[in-house]
Design a protein that fits this description.
It is a single chain. By secondary structure, this protein is of the alpha+beta class. The chain has one domain: Thiol Ester Dehydrase, Chain A (Roll), CATH 3.10.129.10. It has 4 helices and 6 strands. The chain has helices at residues 3-13, 15-20, 50-71, 107-117, and strands at 23-27, 31-36, 77-87, 95-100, 119-130, 133-145. Strands 1-2-4-5-6-3 form a 6-stranded antiparallel sheet.
Protein backbone atom coordinates (compact mmCIF):
# COMPACT_ATOMS: atom_id res chain seq x y z
CA UNK A 1 0.00 0.00 0.00
CA UNK A 2 1.37 3.43 -0.82
CA UNK A 3 1.13 6.60 1.27
CA UNK A 4 -1.82 8.00 -0.66
CA UNK A 5 -3.79 4.76 -0.32
CA UNK A 6 -3.09 4.51 3.41
CA UNK A 7 -4.05 8.16 3.98
CA UNK A 8 -7.31 7.50 2.13
CA UNK A 9 -7.97 4.33 4.16
CA UNK A 10 -7.45 6.17 7.45
CA UNK A 11 -9.54 9.19 6.41
CA UNK A 12 -12.47 7.12 5.10
CA UNK A 13 -12.61 4.24 7.58
CA UNK A 14 -11.44 5.90 10.79
CA UNK A 15 -13.25 9.27 10.81
CA UNK A 16 -11.34 10.45 13.86
CA UNK A 17 -8.16 10.42 11.75
CA UNK A 18 -9.78 12.88 9.35
CA UNK A 19 -10.80 15.19 12.20
CA UNK A 20 -7.32 15.00 13.81
CA UNK A 21 -5.80 15.62 10.34
CA UNK A 22 -3.41 12.67 10.64
CA UNK A 23 -1.17 12.44 7.56
CA UNK A 24 1.40 9.81 6.64
CA UNK A 25 4.82 11.21 5.76
CA UNK A 26 6.62 7.95 5.00
CA UNK A 27 5.59 4.31 4.95
CA UNK A 28 7.32 1.05 4.09
CA UNK A 29 7.20 -2.54 5.31
CA UNK A 30 8.91 -1.80 8.61
CA UNK A 31 8.56 1.92 9.38
CA UNK A 32 6.15 4.82 9.36
CA UNK A 33 6.17 8.53 10.10
CA UNK A 34 3.01 10.57 10.51
CA UNK A 35 2.11 14.10 11.51
CA UNK A 36 -0.86 16.13 12.65
CA UNK A 37 -1.34 19.82 13.34
CA UNK A 38 -1.68 20.95 16.94
CA UNK A 39 -4.86 23.01 16.38
CA UNK A 40 -7.48 20.21 16.13
CA UNK A 41 -5.57 18.20 18.77
CA UNK A 42 -5.07 20.81 21.47
CA UNK A 43 -6.45 21.16 24.96
CA UNK A 44 -7.58 24.32 26.79
CA UNK A 45 -3.94 25.11 27.61
CA UNK A 46 -2.95 25.19 23.94
CA UNK A 47 -0.87 22.02 24.22
CA UNK A 48 -1.49 18.56 22.79
CA UNK A 49 -4.61 16.92 24.24
CA UNK A 50 -3.67 13.60 25.83
CA UNK A 51 -6.58 11.77 24.18
CA UNK A 52 -5.57 13.02 20.75
CA UNK A 53 -1.94 12.01 21.28
CA UNK A 54 -3.06 8.53 22.32
CA UNK A 55 -5.39 8.22 19.32
CA UNK A 56 -2.78 9.52 16.87
CA UNK A 57 -0.21 7.04 18.21
CA UNK A 58 -2.65 4.09 18.07
CA UNK A 59 -3.67 4.99 14.49
CA UNK A 60 -0.02 5.37 13.44
CA UNK A 61 0.84 1.92 14.77
CA UNK A 62 -2.30 0.44 13.25
CA UNK A 63 -1.38 1.83 9.82
CA UNK A 64 2.14 0.37 10.03
CA UNK A 65 0.92 -3.09 11.05
CA UNK A 66 -1.88 -3.01 8.47
CA UNK A 67 0.68 -2.20 5.77
CA UNK A 68 3.04 -4.98 6.94
CA UNK A 69 0.24 -7.55 6.85
CA UNK A 70 -0.94 -6.29 3.45
CA UNK A 71 2.58 -6.54 1.99
CA UNK A 72 2.81 -10.13 3.26
CA UNK A 73 -0.45 -10.91 1.41
CA UNK A 74 -2.14 -11.96 4.64
CA UNK A 75 -5.58 -11.16 5.93
CA UNK A 76 -7.19 -11.12 9.32
CA UNK A 77 -8.76 -8.86 11.89
CA UNK A 78 -6.24 -6.26 13.13
CA UNK A 79 -6.87 -5.02 16.67
CA UNK A 80 -4.96 -3.38 19.48
CA UNK A 81 -4.66 -5.88 22.31
CA UNK A 82 -3.01 -3.55 24.79
CA UNK A 83 -1.65 -0.02 24.66
CA UNK A 84 -0.02 2.09 27.35
CA UNK A 85 1.02 5.66 26.73
CA UNK A 86 3.80 7.51 28.51
CA UNK A 87 3.73 11.32 28.47
CA UNK A 88 7.14 12.96 29.01
CA UNK A 89 6.59 16.66 28.21
CA UNK A 90 3.84 18.87 26.78
CA UNK A 91 3.36 18.97 23.03
CA UNK A 92 3.72 22.67 22.19
CA UNK A 93 3.51 22.59 18.38
CA UNK A 94 2.59 20.28 15.51
CA UNK A 95 2.83 16.57 16.27
CA UNK A 96 5.15 14.04 14.63
CA UNK A 97 5.02 10.29 15.22
CA UNK A 98 7.34 7.44 14.22
CA UNK A 99 7.36 3.67 14.63
CA UNK A 100 9.31 0.64 13.41
CA UNK A 101 8.56 -3.08 13.21
CA UNK A 102 11.19 -5.79 13.69
CA UNK A 103 12.56 -6.17 10.16
CA UNK A 104 14.01 -9.64 10.78
CA UNK A 105 10.63 -11.37 10.51
CA UNK A 106 10.03 -12.76 7.02
CA UNK A 107 6.69 -13.01 5.24
CA UNK A 108 6.94 -16.80 5.51
CA UNK A 109 7.43 -16.57 9.28
CA UNK A 110 4.37 -14.30 9.56
CA UNK A 111 2.30 -16.73 7.48
CA UNK A 112 3.44 -19.68 9.60
CA UNK A 113 2.55 -17.85 12.81
CA UNK A 114 -0.90 -16.90 11.51
CA UNK A 115 -1.72 -20.40 10.29
CA UNK A 116 -0.26 -22.32 13.25
CA UNK A 117 -1.34 -20.04 16.11
CA UNK A 118 -4.27 -18.29 14.47
CA UNK A 119 -2.75 -14.91 15.23
CA UNK A 120 0.28 -12.70 14.80
CA UNK A 121 1.49 -10.43 17.59
CA UNK A 122 3.14 -7.13 16.69
CA UNK A 123 4.68 -5.41 19.72
CA UNK A 124 5.37 -1.82 18.80
CA UNK A 125 6.57 1.48 20.20
CA UNK A 126 5.22 4.65 18.61
CA UNK A 127 7.27 7.72 19.50
CA UNK A 128 5.63 11.15 19.75
CA UNK A 129 7.64 14.28 18.94
CA UNK A 130 7.07 18.00 18.75
CA UNK A 131 9.66 20.56 17.64
CA UNK A 132 12.18 17.71 17.41
CA UNK A 133 11.80 16.74 21.08
CA UNK A 134 10.40 13.43 22.26
CA UNK A 135 7.22 14.17 24.18
CA UNK A 136 6.05 10.64 24.83
CA UNK A 137 5.59 7.16 23.45
CA UNK A 138 2.98 4.45 23.14
CA UNK A 139 3.83 0.84 23.98
CA UNK A 140 1.29 -1.29 22.16
CA UNK A 141 0.63 -4.85 21.15
CA UNK A 142 -1.30 -5.18 17.91
CA UNK A 143 -2.75 -8.55 17.01
CA UNK A 144 -3.89 -9.94 13.67
CA UNK A 145 -6.42 -12.72 14.24
CA UNK A 146 -7.19 -15.23 11.46
Amino acid sequence: MNIEEMNQLLQEHIPLCRFMELKIGSLDAVSITTSAPLEPNRNMHGTGFAGSLYSLAVATGWALVHNRVDLACLSGQLVVKKAVIHYKRPVMADIELAANIDSDVSNDALKEQLFSKGRIDFPLIVNIYSKGKKCGYLEANYVVVA
